[in-house]
Specification:
This protein starts with 6 loop residues before the first helix and ends with a helix. Strands 3-2-1-4-5-7-6 form a 7-stranded mixed β-sheet, with helices on both faces. It has helices at residues 7-14, 23-32, 48-55, 67-79, 117-125, 144-152, 176-185, 215-224, and strands at 38-42, 59-64, 86-90, 102-108, 128-139, 188-193, 202-209. It has 225 residues and is an alpha/beta fold. Helix content is 34%, strand content 22%. Helix 5 links the parallel strand 4 and strand 5. The chain is built from 8 helices and 7 strands. It has a single domain (7-224), classed as 3-Layer(aba) Sandwich (Rossmann fold), CATH 3.40.50.150.
Length: 225
């Protein structure tokens, strides 16, 4: 029996389920990307987005913690005749770094699944040049629908022991403020909010590298006041 105590094995089982593809989100990402260049798709799942980008001329590296997803992505790339434009391999971004630098790094609907998101972001930063852009999407903890739901919630203690849908596998939730803070701690910053405002159902942001927070400067300032 597989339980959520072994999250990686649980995710491997989930990888046998076809993932929902948000075509509007994909088109939004493509619309802000310059033509050509290199792309790292973290949490590539069965490779649908990676293959779409490869067919548009991008050189795409797709990684996923699930070997099953990686195998499916390779088969799709072969079927769509873009094997020469794609590379797929299994990797745990919380523990490992992808060698090289990429123009674009996609981190779409992944960060909410991670046990150690700060470790993942620090590893991602190692694959970013100063001009690289990281695109993150994740459900918004302060989305207006969630706020309304909580306002009318009858209360009680939430119970997630009975999985009802894939969203129950989310280990983290972020508002724009908490996501920005986490990114800053990892030496990254949000440069653009792609959706209209901070209360949309999903956070959809563009990030770049920044200087890591200097704790020594903070300590000096604190001591001088």
């Amino acid at each position: 029996m597989t339980t959520m105590e072994d999250y990686r094995t649980a995710y491997e089982l989930v990888s046998s389920i076809d993932q929902n593809v948000d075509l509007k989100k994909i088109e939004k990402v493509i619309s802000i990307m310059t033509e050509g260049g290199t792309v790292l798709d973290i949490g590539c799942a069965e490779g649908l987005f990676a293959v779409m980008l490869a067919k548009r001329g991008y050189e795409v590296t797709g990684v996923d913690i699930s070997q099953n997803f990686v195998d499916r992505a390779k088969r799709l790339a072969e079927e769509k005749e873009v094997l020469g434009k794609t590379k797929f391999f299994a990797l745990n971004i919380e523990a490992d770094t992808v060698a090289g630098f990429f123009d674009w790094i996609l981190f779409l609907d992944v960060i909410e699944h991670l046990e150690s998101p700060i470790k993942a972001l620090r590893n991602i930063r190692k694959s970013m040049a100063d001009s690289s852009k990281l695109i993150i999407s994740t459900p918004n903890a302060l989305g207006r629908n969630r706020i309304i739901f909580h306002c009318f919630d009858k209360g009680g203690i939430p119970d997630y022991t009975n999985l009802k849908d894939l969203s129950a596998l989310h280990l983290q939730e972020y508002s724009l403020k908490t996501l920005a803070r986490l990114l800053n701690f990892a030496g990254l910053k949000i440069t653009e909010l792609l959706h209209g405002n901070r209360f949309d159902a999903n956070l959809f942001v563009v990030c770049q590298k920044c200087e890591p927070i200097r704790v020594d400067d903070f300590v000096k300032k604190a001591k001088s006041t």
